[in-house]
Amino acid sequence: MSSFNTLELLSLAENIKAWGKELGFQQVGICDVDLSRHETPLQEWLNKGFSGEMNYMSEHGMKRARPDELLPGTVRVISVRLDYLPPDAEFAKTLKNKNQAYISRYALGRDYHKLLRARLKKLGEKIRSECQHLNFRPFVDSAPVLEHAIAEKAGIGWTGKHSLTINKEAGSWFFLGELFIDLPLPIDQKVEENCGSCQACLTICPTQAIVEPYVVDARRCISYLTIEQKGAIPEEYRKLIGNRIYGCDDCQLICPWNRYASITDEKDFHPRQQLMGKELLALFAWDENTFLKNTEGSAIRRIGHERWQRNIAVGLGNAPYSADIIAALEVALKNASELVAEHIHWAIEQQEDKSLFLEEVTENRLTERLIRSIEKGLPRDA
To answer: What is the domain partition of the chain in residue ranges?
Structure first.
């Protein structure tokens, strides 16, 4: 690695931020690799089992909080922000229509992992052109990295009570990526926290997964349940999931800071027509080939067709009563895997319970009308 004096490093840091903007990043920050204050909270979180089936969270020990162990020689981390809020997101409209499938808005477009990593690699190569022996490595959810802690330290934003990074100008609708480097660049200042006394995200979480400010029990989180959970979704959470078949945005939707978020300029993050605002029954009808075709290049594909059907079955169970829904569930049951069949049986039970309830309501209303009709015909002194 070439040697640089202080002024040259300052100039290079400014250039790196400018190059990052040219590559499409909305923000670039730099921090050192001392994340030691996060080690105890991380271990406590793991000890409580809050990581659920995500065994990779504990497999690497404290390496997640020690960047220089992940990539020996690392002395700085460059953190980048890439906004993804799509136009016409129709959050409330889709959530209210229980016959439609709600998909977390980050997943409606192209999978961000490859796009973001490719740009980080270009940024690293650009820096290397200035110092030939530079060692760098880009990360986008691909290794044990505390991305939110890094983003906070690099001045991208502060960690909100929902554990996501919040920026005053951009809210939290953005992706994060990291570039580990062995160049002692000047670092940025940490951003002051601005959540104050707000508890909105804790209150609105459908499953109360935010067990205390800044602490999320993944096992209760709808994003975890619909994406990371490989087996059956616990029954206690199925009704609470509603029509959310892939991820959940509730804690971000309620956050006051997201009123300042801007629509992304990235066309790749705009919603795909085959995923946006679609009926649950229409998506449930996809066979595996159709699923793979319609989710090509999408983050959704990683859960596979089986879990896709599992999630939609839960959504159909939570939808308003429909004979068409029961018929579709019964047809799918014939060739369903054991996992999907369990959720289909549950969904059918929910639909049948609603049918009985509607029958009782209808019968009660008819009885009330009959009584009123009889009463109207009775003498006043009867």
So the answer is: 6-85+108-181, 280-382
Rounded Cα distance between 51 and 194, Å, is 27
Coil, strand, or helix at residue 200? helix
Residue that has been written with the tokens 């308003």 in this structure: 320
Helix, strand, coil percentages in the chain from 3-state DSSP, rounded to 5: 50, 10, 40
Residues tagged active-site: 141
* Residue pointed to by tokens 């690699």: 121
Rounded to two decimals, the pTM is: 0.90
> How distant, in Å, are the alpha carbons of 21, 108, 220, 230, 328 from that of 267?
17, 11, 33, 31, 35
Does residue 317 contact residue 346 with C-beta atoms inside 8 Å?
yes
372 burial class (0-12, 13-18, 19+ CB within 10 angstroms)?
Answer: exposed
Token code pair at residue 165: 């990074």
Rounded to whole angstroms, the Cα distance separating 317 from 348 reads 6
C-alpha 255/C-alpha 321 separation (Å) is: 33
Question: What span, in angstroms and rounded, lies between the C-alpha atoms of 21 and 81?
Answer: 10
Cα–Cα distance measured from residue 158 to residue 160, given in angstroms and rounded to the nearest whole number: 6
User: What are the angstrom distances between the C-alpha of 46 and each of 54, 141, 144, 159, 363?
Assistant: 10, 18, 14, 19, 53
pLDDT in tens, the chain (382 residues): 457 889 999 999 999 999 999 999 999 999 999 999 999 999 999 999 999 999 888 888 889 999 999 999 999 999 999 999 999 899 999 999 999 999 999 999 999 999 999 999 999 999 999 988 899 999 999 889 999 999 999 999 999 999 999 999 999 999 999 999 999 999 999 999 999 999 999 999 999 999 999 999 999 999 999 999 999 999 999 999 999 999 999 999 999 999 999 999 999 999 999 999 999 999 999 999 999 999 999 999 999 999 999 999 999 999 999 999 999 999 999 999 999 999 999 999 999 999 886 766 555 665 566 556 555 655 544 4
**Residues 331, 333: Cα–Cα separation, whole Å:** 5
Give the CA angle between residues 150, 226, 162 to the nearest 5°: 35
